[in-house]
Design brief:
The structure is a homodimer of 425-residue chains.
Chain A lengths: L6 E6 L1 H4 L7 H12 L3 E7 L3 H14 L2 E5 L10 H8 L4 E3 L1 H13 L13 E3 L3 E3 L8 E7 L2 E6 L3 H18 L6 E9 L4 H7 L10 E7 L2 E10 L2 H19 L3 E4 L4 H11 L4 E5 L5 H6 L9 E6 L3 H6 L5 H7 L4 H15 L3 E7 L14 E7 L5 E7 L6 H27 L1
Parallel strand pairs in A: 1-2, 1-3, 3-8, 13-14, 13-15
Antiparallel strand pairs in A: 4-5, 6-7, 7-8, 9-11, 9-12, 10-11, 15-16, 16-17
Helix pairs in contact in A: 2-6, 3-4, 9-14
Chain lengths: 425, 425
Amino acid sequence: LGYIMAAEIICVGTELLLGDILNSNLQYLGQGLAALGIPHFYQTVVGDNIDRIHQVLEVATKRSNILIFTGGLGPTADDLTTEAIASYFDTPLKRDEAVVADIEQKFASRDREMAPSNLKQALRPVGADILPNPKGTAPGMIWQPTEHLTILTFPGVPRELYAMWEETAIPFFKDQGWGQDLIHSEMLRFRGVTESGLAEQVAHLLSLANPTVAPYASQGEIRLRVSAKAPSVEAAMALIEPVATEIRSIAGNDYFGSDGDTLTKVVGNLLKLKSQTLSVAESCTGGGLGSMITEVSGSSSYFLGGVQSYGNGVKIKVLGVPSELIETKGAVSAEVAKAMAIGVQELMGSDWALSITGIAGPGGGTVEKPVGLVYIGIAHPNGTVEALEYKMGTTRDRDLIRHLSSCTALDQLRRRLLVNQEISG
Amino acid sequence: LGYIMAAEIICVGTELLLGDILNSNLQYLGQGLAALGIPHFYQTVVGDNIDRIHQVLEVATKRSNILIFTGGLGPTADDLTTEAIASYFDTPLKRDEAVVADIEQKFASRDREMAPSNLKQALRPVGADILPNPKGTAPGMIWQPTEHLTILTFPGVPRELYAMWEETAIPFFKDQGWGQDLIHSEMLRFRGVTESGLAEQVAHLLSLANPTVAPYASQGEIRLRVSAKAPSVEAAMALIEPVATEIRSIAGNDYFGSDGDTLTKVVGNLLKLKSQTLSVAESCTGGGLGSMITEVSGSSSYFLGGVQSYGNGVKIKVLGVPSELIETKGAVSAEVAKAMAIGVQELMGSDWALSITGIAGPGGGTVEKPVGLVYIGIAHPNGTVEALEYKMGTTRDRDLIRHLSSCTALDQLRRRLLVNQEISG
């Protein structure tokens, strides 16, 4: 494949193949390489086996010229990374006496004696440099076994890897000229639109090279990540800004915020801006909406409280929903959603009130009122009340239907606060 | 390399290389293959790029004969997995009309129209079978493009992958003769004990070979996984049972259930058994406790509802907490916790009532009442009321303090229901 300037991450450890531990090092190193602007096209995980590590080296050395190994640097017999790399390049191992002294000193500082097996951790291929480990006994190495190929090894223990990456690897790569250009991103967040729908609206932007635009979707929220590569954060933001502005203008009110702006924070900020208060009446969500609103520290300045009217008795007695309404329309109906919203607005004396009543499943659905049918009531400060009907789908599970119900209620309130905003402002 | 019977996991997604998301699918699939006894020597991650997916196929088809792909099945232009696999094997793509109908139906059940781009998700190489997706729009495939090579594709979204793995892939592999010696586990669950404390109590069991006993800890819950390898579930259970019984006897009431017995389900079952009802009054949790209780479908038979008394005005007006009490003792106090519990018990007419008031942080802490100080009130059916004080620690974050508060309230109710149980039974 010839000479390509790219890194490859190679994690060594049978415990990773067995799924005994979650491989978070891939994410850490992926972010680390991205921050330095080092291209990185492949990640490989292999067990504690010399032949297979050789096979991975055979493949990786043909397609990548910076190999970043993690794991297999410990003192036990199945820690094979250093040995496997040295033998692949037919290079003898040599014990580094400075490393032996360092390991002995680390054991002494913990009032322990070094076991003979730890001597293995002082071996490195002739010609390799030590990559010091400030947090553990096993050092890594930096080695250039052939022209245009650099190998770095790190332990698998995350906190040791992090310290070594930050203290030694990043300065090493910067010395080599990497990391002069950084990658900066803005994550734009949307509700009320599908991933495919939004992707079609911004299709002409998805093929841009710098900044790039990439869509993500999770639990009813759609995201577009706009990433730019530039010598400084300011320069990257200057590349991002016109594209982000165009996307915001296309998406209109479906865009609710960027990066750390959660729906809950955005709604809270709008309420604070207008000095208005909110209360909630929750049936199928059982408290999930209030819990979401109070995730924000300081939410007490606009959130008064609510009623978890799970049983019909509570809807009638505490919220004043007429029992005839429940009998004739059903607890899951637009009429009951409205009565719940008005009831909690009066009880709490809030400006706005949201209510949710629905069939979260898996039981309780009928042909007329299937699982996923949810009504959201919104009582406005001017005394009007409305109810919105949603079909969240019969295949989604209870947790997701409840989560989407709370998010949708907040999102609808957000849209109404924005409209009020435009009128009053 | 010849013909080796082994699986390889191949994850497709540039967002994985950039470290935008943590790749938990590798662990899930690693565990899944291990449980079936399928050897698995390599895992590969590659970006959304056809040439590089071809390069990965070139390597993987030489060393593995079951390829498990995740990711790249979405509707957008950078979702390339199906296309890349088909073109590698020079096989044309064909649209599956049954899949089109299924996707259209899923959109309709959510009251949405299918975007044209979703049609792409109905394409598969000629000769491939569909691997149905009960949780999302994109199905996967099972395909044998050549003798001795089987390819399975899954979406990258974990909950969709899990459902497809369990419902289709496991039965498929069992049909092929895998997973005859199976691994069966019981996960024992505990509250009110530390991981190291429990590990010391059961230290003599941690070195067993079959079954094995392994401790886990997460968000205040401690778990011991007892795993046995045997030809049948019954044989495995026979190995597990004596060890699990010994652990339960050591742990006493700190053990609350096994496997899918969540704290919420266990408390619900105890309430159902006694035909008693529950209501809640929540301050700092804002609805989280009620939301947790109503995670259980059918919880309406014992959970009446609650009041999210976030503001002090709601505590006074709706729950009848005397305002002098709030002024003299503070909203976060044993006295107010008791008054909240009694107040909601009377309002809802429930047998039991739980209340929570605390300082979830990060703001609002003082020397006398630091962040993490939480009072839990418990109103009993016989009219007595008690308050318990907890210091959840000043370094934990808001989310965790709120979560632990709800769990602790449920756990304390569980212990009281068990005591009542023993007396009445």
